[in-house]
Amino acid sequence: MLRPYDLLENVLIDIEKGLKKGVNSDNIAGKYELSEGHLRRLFRFAFKQSIAGYIRSRKLSSSLNELLKTDANIIDIALSYGYRYEQTYIRAFKEEFGVLPGLLRKTGQIVKVKPPLHLFDENKLKEGVLFGPEIVMIPEFHIAGISQIIPFNESETLAPKAAIQFWENNKKHIGNINNPNIYIGLTCNINRENENSEYITSVHVKNFNKVPEGYRKYTFGSCLCARFRYIGQHHYYEINSRIAGEMYYTIWKFANDKQQKFALMDDKVHFEKIDIDCYDGKYCQMEWFAPVMVKK
């Protein structure tokens, strides 16, 4: 099984090589023994766009070379990129570039193209691949779960263990859950003096009406956050201190980058979000969020 970085890099290469060979998500997924649905989810999670839309845009962008640099008939260009009918190609072209291919050939209008996607060394981790950060607005939400105080020097070991304990034994007692497949691990009340913090293993709830006695209730207020996206070659239960440490080191580098416009407020609160449904036996996905503020 390929590591996530290598899988995604190979998928991008296969797309470029297959633009004239009928490349699609189904035959790529088959090559790497993935379900097509899971490949689509991985691609969208990693690159924030659909694989089908990306392939279509890359085909049309690539076809500009023949349209503008040769005298080839439009029907021949369409057929060479897998379009069975000239009109199908023309409609897709107009939707992509806002101009008909024949008119573009005549006028030489400047159009915006979809360049090939690339991965970078900074995305690559030993156990997976990390994307971000993106600055997103998080609406207010409520969580309910189990709280414990964890020392800083043990958080990368104790937090994953606490998450498994909650998921297997405590989650079932909570009502009004928004999505029973999503886990949220939230760190707050960070105490630098005592070198510990509160870690809440939790689920997202609609309200606190059906939260049992003794369970921690917490409301995360709406704010701008930095979001990092992680894909790993392991099960969620296999997230350990080594994997967590590597992710947090990459996030720490962002937090200490003086060139960044935003300051990371992870010393106040931060949380990880895991959708259990996204694991297909090979690759997992996780998101990590922390509030940000614009640097003065």
Mean pLDDT: 94
CATH topology of the largest domain: Multidrug-efflux Transporter 1 Regulator Bmrr, Chain A
Query: How much beta, percentage-wise?
Result: 25-35%
How many separate structural domains? 2
Describe the structure.
With 296 residues, the chain is of the alpha+beta class. The protein has two domains: 4-107, Homeodomain-like (Arc Repressor Mutant, subunit A), CATH 1.10.10.60; 128-294, Multidrug-efflux Transporter 1 Regulator Bmrr, Chain A, CATH 3.20.80.10. It contains nine helices and nine strands. Strands 1, 2, 3, 4, 5, 6, 7, 8 and 9 form a nine-stranded antiparallel β-sheet that branches. Strand 8 (270-275) and strand 9 form a beta hairpin. The model has no long low-confidence stretch (mean pLDDT 94).
What is this entry, summarized?
The protein has 296 residues and is α+β, with helices and mostly antiparallel strands. It contains nine helices and nine strands.
Give the secondary structure arrangement, pairings included.
Blueprint: H1 4-17, H2 25-31, H3 36-47, H4 51-69, H5 74-80, H6 86-97, H7 101-107, E1 128-138, E2 141-151, H8 155-170, E3 182-191, E4 196-205, E5 216-220, E6 223-232, H9 241-255, E7 262-264, E8 270-275, E9 284-294
Antiparallel strand pairs: 1-6, 2-4, 2-5, 3-4, 3-8, 6-9, 7-9, 8-9
